[in-house]
Specification:
Structural class: mainly alpha
Radius of gyration: 14 Å
Distance between the termini: 37 Å
Number of helices: 5
Order of helices and strands: HEEHHHH
Amino acid sequence: MNWEQQYRRLVQLARTLPPYPDDARDERHLVSGCEAKVWLYVDSSNPDAVVIRFDSASRIVKGLLALIQQRLDGQPLAEIQAFDLDALLRAENLENHLTPSRSNGLRNVAKKLTSDFDAPRSVRSPSAR
């Protein structure tokens, strides 16, 4: 698949992201080190089925985030902690199509996802979803 085909695919994937919680669109949920703004919401109150939500203004970034979200949303905490971004990019044939700034931004997202799970970052009650 060439980059133009990948681009169209990512734009289509961006449309599949579930809605991002409005009350989590703040500095606390903003992922630092991304060229385009990226928000990350994690509800790890149930470690057997962690809820992950992303948002970004960039369609391409949203498509890349959708790949991560599809892979990890609803998975156990241990699966998320073991997430390998490079393996996902290889499997999706994207490792040679991303700019260094996009790759670095995705690495920051993965780092934030896989670290600091000692306490839930964002917890919402089941009735608030």
